[in-house]
Every structure is written in structure tokens, then in C-alpha cells.
């Protein structure tokens, strides 16, 4: 049996709608309503194990989707360091060169934070350590899902800038004897 991992991005937060970097933001009423509405029309995800990032928005999304989850530190969002809670537009004025480097270079961390390359190593290690017969639903963040997808495809880290993950998106990856592969999520 293959390892099957369904990665679900958490519901939208007020910080996302305001163009701010996350700072362990909880879901607001709008995000909870979106997750509950999505639950009504979501396909059966049927996994044996449900996991979540430690972040409030991921745990609350999991709850709204009806999952009792185990918090998994490897599913944590990228550490945005000193950029946590700050608006993207503000950073574009204050530190334009650092922001530009971060948005294009997977090795460039936000000030005092974690680079995408570091997230890729963390997530790849977690994926490779999963039981070979595991079936997992993981509620997490867009950078973590990007990292999992790039790891599965053995794609270069610089490709992170070309992947968009919307709130409540589902990405499925599977590991077989051939290694990891991306699968279209069933709808």
C-alpha cells in the first residue's frame, strides 16, 4: 500500500485578507464559515490519521472540517521572523531589497526567520519519515504545501515562487516503490 498524504491549506484569516504576514492568527468568523461551508461540499478525505500545524488557524480549520487532529510541529508555517504581523506593503517600503530577495530566492530568509529552503528540508524530512502504509490528512499552510509538492516532484527549490495555494485547497501526494508523486486531488 502507498503512503497517501492529503495536504489541506487552512481557511483564510483576517491577516491574509489584510495583506499581513501571519502571526499565529486565529480564524475569524468569516474563515470559520468558509471552512464549514467547504466541509459540506468537500470530497471524502477518508484518512486514518489527521494532523495539523500548531498554528491556531490550522487547528481551527481542522475543527471546522470535523477532524480531531494531532498537532505536528513539522507542519508549522514558515517562521517569518521580524516580519510577523507586518503588512506586505509596509515591508515593500521599509525593506524592498530584502522582500524582493525573499520572494525570489529560496535561501533568503525574512529578517530573523526561516528561508523556504529550510522549510523544504523540514517538510521533506517529515514526509520521508512517514510510515509506508500511512494515510494522512494534514491541515497546514501554503509554504508547507509548496514544500511538500516540490519534494514529491524532486523539483528545484526556486520553483516555490511559481506555485499558488489558495485557502482550503487540497494537494495529494503519494509514495510508492517509485518514490513520491503528485496526484490530482479527488473531488
TrEMBL record:
Entry GO CC: cytoplasm
Gene3D superfamilies on file: Phosphoglycerate mutase-like (3.40.50.1240)
A Pfam cross-reference name: His_Phos_1
GO molecular function, one term: phosphatase activity
Entry-linked InterPro entries: His_Pase_superF_clade-1, His_PPase_superfam, PGM_Phosphatase
Xref: PANTHER family: BROAD-SPECIFICITY PHOSPHATASE YOR283W-RELATED (PTHR48100), HISTIDINE PHOSPHATASE FAMILY PROTEIN-RELATED (PTHR48100:SF1)
The protein's name in its UniProt record: Broad specificity phosphatase PhoE
Organism for this UniProt entry: Paraburkholderia phenazinium
